[in-house]
Amino acid sequence: xxxxxxxxxxxxxxxxxxxxxxxxxxxxxxxxxxxxxxxxxxxxxxxxxxxxxxxxxxxxxxxxxxxxxxxxxxxxxxxxxxxxxxxxxxxxxxxxxxxxxxxxxxxxxxxxxxxxxxxxxxxxxxxxxxxxxxxxxxxxxxxxxxxxxxxxxxxxxxxxxxxxxxxxxxxxxxxxxxxxxxxxxxxxxxxxxxxxxxxxxxxxxxxxxxxxxxxxxxxxxxxxxxxxxxxxxxxxxxxxxxxxxxxxxxxxxxxxxxxxxxxxxxxxxxxxxxxxxxxxxxxxxxxxxxxxxxxxxxxxxxxxxxxxxxxxxxxxxxxxxxxxxxxxxxxxxxxxxxxxxxxxxxxxxxxxxxxxxxxxxxxxxxxxxxxxxxxxxxxxxxxxxxxxxxxxxxxxxxxxxxxxxxxxxxxxxxxxxxxxxxxxxxxxxxxxxxxxxxxxxxxxxxxxxxxxxxxxxxxxxxxxxxxxxxxxxxxxxxxxxxxxxxxxxxxxxxxxxxxxxxxxxxxxxxxxxxxxxxxxxxxxxxxxxxxxxxxx
Length: 536
Fold this sequence. Notes:
The protein is of the alpha/beta class. Helix content is 57%, strand content 10%. The strands form 2 sheets. A 5-stranded parallel β-sheet has the order 2-1-3-4-5, with helices on both faces. Strands 7-8-6-9-10 form a 5-stranded mixed β-sheet, sandwiched between helices. α13 (361-376) packs antiparallel against α14.
């Protein structure tokens, strides 16, 4: 099984060319549609046969977020991969709810793309196998009707675009043209990514079945819409469209659900939208309200909780307090390797950000993650590019899946401790730099490139150059030239060697070049210098 057609969308021509060439090398039989913006990609998908979309976020005409929303709503069988970067945490998280299957981090690496294509091939093969098994005609019709209904409801909820009128659309509109509201339920499953242990409150398959059975019994509604989250396989979200409900009725029903689930030790959270005079035209606004209310479970992980727009714990859209003072204190602790100081400042920051009324979780997450990443970036040029990329890459992955305040600060502490360790290592690296300088003094007549020296001590060349400058007051090339010309001056005064031989003995392979360097430093040629300064 191979992927028949992949649509690539990126307005940066060089990146698009690199990515397409890597994919073609790995799966040459796959058709590639190269698109420079979201509109071109949308047209390529409408032409048919596409099984995978790989798209950047920021593009002209139609950006990646709108493209993802359209494709996930109207072509749910197409796998979607988001091209992202370290600084685009919020975009990646927003894309999760729109049907993104995976993300690909810039800059592109062959192994990452190979792993991604393998995973997408398995997913697409599974979809084909499922389709082949569903050959019973009546069951196929019923499944198709359910699929069309879910697709239509998802399109309405995410406001992708106005769907074409149809009997199914008219029936849904009629059933929802009443006062009502929307609820989003969320729970954690035991399906965790490889190497990650699910939390104690994660639900087994059996408990999930019990929960959904209770939901259907209490709410008696056909409008239950799963909101997929492929980037977090351990989370489930379910939208309940509740025409005819008022907030007190909804809260009473949810409390009954909580009582039933308490006996089974089933943990879930619910976000409730405000009441709408007519639910149908307000589906997207209601979904946004319910999701925003539900996001405050960020502060209460592992507890069954109800949240609504009118919740007293949730304040107005308050701005995040200034973090500059905290950042200054943490930076000082990180640069000095003070792990206790890092923990204390993070604890104070957590207390500040968890006071009621509660701040927007997305703002808190963005503020803390941005603060941490800015401190990690202090390492740029100080450590090897591989180590620097590793810490930044880990920050991106960890923060993109973070959905609890405790996890946010646990992740930040771990990353900052790693960063502090690099600074502590840096402060003890002057002995290593002294060793390098001693080696250069002993071997300056040989061919010595800065990169060769840096590789020997596992530094980046730019970092080693900066440390030599600190120790000697000269750049590496200037210091090497100083050693060589000083040795040449000594030989001129103490021996009768020919200038050509002295040049060679001091590491210069070209005597003419040696003469120019010597004249530039001493204002005279080597021969004239010898005549003027050598004692008889």
